[in-house]
Amino acid sequence: MTVTVRFAPSPTGNIHIGNARTALFNWLFARKNGGRFVQRFDDTDQARSKQEFADQILYDLHWLGIFPDKVDHQSRRFERYQAAVERLKAAGLLYPCYETPDELELKRKIRLSRKLPPIYGREALALGDEDRAALEAEGRKPHWRFLLPNYQRDPSETQRTDISWNDIVRGEETVDLASLSDPVLIRADGTYLYTLPSVVDDIEMGITHVIRGDDHVTNTGVQIALFKALGADAPAFGHHNLLTAASGEGLSKRSGALSIASLREDGIEPMAIASLAVLTGTSENIEPVPSMGDLAEKFDPAAASRSAAKFDPADLVHLNRALLQTMPFTAVRDRLVAFGVGGERAEAFWLAVRGNLDRLSDAARWWEVVSKDYRPDVPFAEADAAFLADAFALLPDEPWNGETWKAWTSAVKDKTGRKGKALFRPLRLALTGLESGPELSDLLPLLGREETLARRP
Ligand code: GLU
Prior knowledge:
Elements: E1 4-7, H1 17-32, E2 36-41, H2 51-64, E3 70-73, H3 78-90, E4 94-97, H4 101-113, H5 129-137, E5 143-146, E6 162-167, E7 171-176, E8 184-186, H6 195-204, E9 209-213, H7 217-229, E10 236-240, E11 243-245, H8 260-265, H9 270-279, H10 292-298, E12 309-311, H11 314-325, H12 329-337, H13 346-353, H14 363-369, H15 382-393, H16 404-416, H17 420-432, H18 440-454
Parallel strand pairs: 1-2, 2-3, 9-10, 11-12
Antiparallel strand pairs: 4-5, 5-8, 6-7
């Protein structure tokens, strides 16, 4: 069976780096196993879900380097969920309940005071047709619970029922179904909770591996039971640890600054985000990985630890800098055009400045520094001015190359007796107006003799 995974966010906001971790775990898993990636939008909550968010999520995934084989929306599949509901009802596995939240809370307290586990006591199973008619005549609408298979004959006598799976990330996991309330699958207003639509889709879309955050571990016992109730084999499951900020606080759709869109606007490279999102909280070092193929080679879901994956957003800038430092010109040529960088000097320029960038957009500043009309206006003390006059008089003839700077500065050193900082600082200031920057041996051929001479103070 072809490995098939899915990434299933609700399109109720922008995705952040923590969601990207889930998407990437799935994408890399599919990639390693020659599998397929289904993009599923869990948009049964039609009031909060928006097509703009779904579009934005797809855009963000593409930008990160994730290209779904298929895109689907739960809001287009309600009749499939209805069909599953009918089957569960016919099998007596979905039953109507009428308690209000206050009544449920009271029942919970009573059970706790009797030292019973605070789970739903299945009182609604005892209701007859007349009781239900009377409750509905009061204006109550039923919500529907799935009868968990945690009893032998009598549902009111539950017994320990372990559901186990070999988690791709966490290893052996077990949930005792007798420790859980029968889950509500349909609310009183007729809307679905996520549990049933997700299982129906996983079955019908041929999902073989469900990889998601460890906040879903307890859902898995229920969902495995639901797969069985619907006559299907459960897929394999993997639950990865969640990314949390250094403060220990979890990320939410409201973590605006860490949304993929805002990181992109801030000039963070997709592979910086992917490297951090995937490698944090694993046994691998966090390092800049240049391509998705390289990241797939490093990726091992079982390397993720069980504790929270704490990360420092500042690491994104370090990773970004490191990625840019070795990025080939072909990878940035088109994007540099947006900063005005083009023409025959573009490649040499890129190789000269890429080690000095926090963000690609910083290239614009260096392009200005090597542009023809840039005139650094630095006031020099008399001694430095005299030194520079001597130095510029010694500029070699063209053609210039990577050796020209060395040849020139050796001649200047011989003539003036200056060396080290006293030699290099005034030259750098005269040529760039700045204290530091790319290697002058790279910048000099970019400027050319005429332009260099024009910068003589
Ligand atoms: N829509 C669910 C979520 O975003 C999907 C969980 C799952 O992958 O099963 O939490």
